[in-house]
Amino acid sequence: MTTGTEGEALNGANGGSLAGRYYGRGIPYLPIAGYPGKLIAIEGTDGVGRTTQIQLLREWLEVKGYGVVETGWTRSPLMQPTIELAKSSNTLNKLTFVLLYATDFADRLEKEIIPALKAGFVVLSDRYIFTALARAGVRGIDRSWLRSLYGFAIAPHLVFYLNVDVKTLIGRVLASRGMDFWESGMDLKHGDDIYDSFRTYQNRLLREYASMGDEFHFRTVDARRNVDRIQDELRRQVAEFLEGIEPAPQRSEP
Amino acid sequence: MTFSLLHATDFADRLLYKIIPPLKAGMIVLADRYAFTAFARDATRGVERQWLRELYSFAVRPDLSLYFKVPIEVSVDRLMARRVKLKFYEAGMDLGWSTNPVESFRLFQGKVLDEYDRLVDEFGLQVIDASGSITEQQRLVRTVVAPVVNARATEADMVAVGDEA
Questions:
Q1: In terms of CA atoms, which chain B residue is nearest residue A99?
Q2: Is the distance from CB of A144 to CB of A26 less than 8 angstroms?
Q3: Model-level pTM greater than 0.90?
C-alpha cells in the first residue's frame, strides 16, 4: 500500500510554508493572505480516474457541511473554445500551447479559485499546474521558465497525485474511450502508431510527474486499486487535514 | 493576469509565424508594438514587472526599438480631433478609475507613459519626439534606422560570401 503521509504526519500545511500562498511573484493586485478557503488539487495523468474521485469527494464533503467548488483544466469559459479550436487545427506550437493553458488557468484562478477561497470554500481542482508542467516538460520547454510563468499560481493545501503504471493505464483507457491524439502525444511525432506513441508519451509524462513529487509535496496515492479503496484513502487524508484546522461545520444545529 | 497571458499567447503565435521566419530569411521585420507595450500596459494594470520580463524571455530582442513619445495631452487631443471612439480597454475602463472614457484614458495612458519611461533605459529604447510633424519624425527615424540596416546588410553580404567560399 502506498501512502504519501509517512513523514508528513504533522500536516495542516502540506505544501510546506507555501500552502495557500503564491508560489512565486504572484498577482500583486490580488492579495490572498488569510483567505479561509482550502485548495485541494487532484493530479494524475489522462484516464487515471481523477474526475470520478473528485465527484465522490465532493458529495462526501458537502454532506459533511463544507461548501465545495470544483475547477478543472481548460474549463475556463473564456479559453475553452479557443483551446479546442487550436487543438483541432495544425497551428499549435509548443509555446502557444503552453501559454494557452496558462491563460486558461489564470482566468480560472482570478474568476473561480481566488473568489472561492476568499469565501471559505473547499476548492477541488481536477488537475492543477503540475499537468501543465509535465506536458510542457515532456515537450522540451525550459523548466525554470515554466516555474517562473506559473509563479502566479497558489500552492494548494493538499496535492494528491494519483499514480498509475502505463500498463494499467492502457487497459483502462482502451476499455473506456480509447486513445486520443493529444493524450497519445502524437504531436511529438514518435511515429504513426498511436499505441506505441501513447505508451512512450505517457511513460515520459509519468516520469515527469514523479520528478515533481518532492518539489511540490505530492501525496502519492496508488491509483491501480479500485475506486472505493482510493476514495477511502483520499477521504481519510482530507478529513485529517480539514478537521485538524476546525471541526466539520454542522449544517443544522439540533 | 488573464489579459496579460492572452496577449502573450497572441504574441508567441505572431513571433513564431510572422517574425522568426522572415528573420531567418534575412528580411527586415517592422513590428508595430512589441513586448514593451505589454510591459508598460500590463504593469499599469498591476502585473508584476519582473514576472512579465521572464514571461517574455522567449521574445527576440530587436536590433532597434523606437519609442514614439508624446505628452498625454497631445495624445488625447489627437484622438479627440479625429473623433475616435475610445476603446474600452485602451482607455483602461476595466480598472474603474473613471466612468468618463476620456478621463479614464488620460489617467490610464498617463500611467502607461510613466512605465514606458522606465523601459527607455532598461531596454535602450530610442526615443523619437512624436509631437513634431510627420516629416520631421520620419527624417529622424531614417537617420536612426539607416546605420542599423546598413550594418545588417554588410553582415548579410558576409554570409553570402561565406556560402560561396
A1: B9
A2: no
A3: no
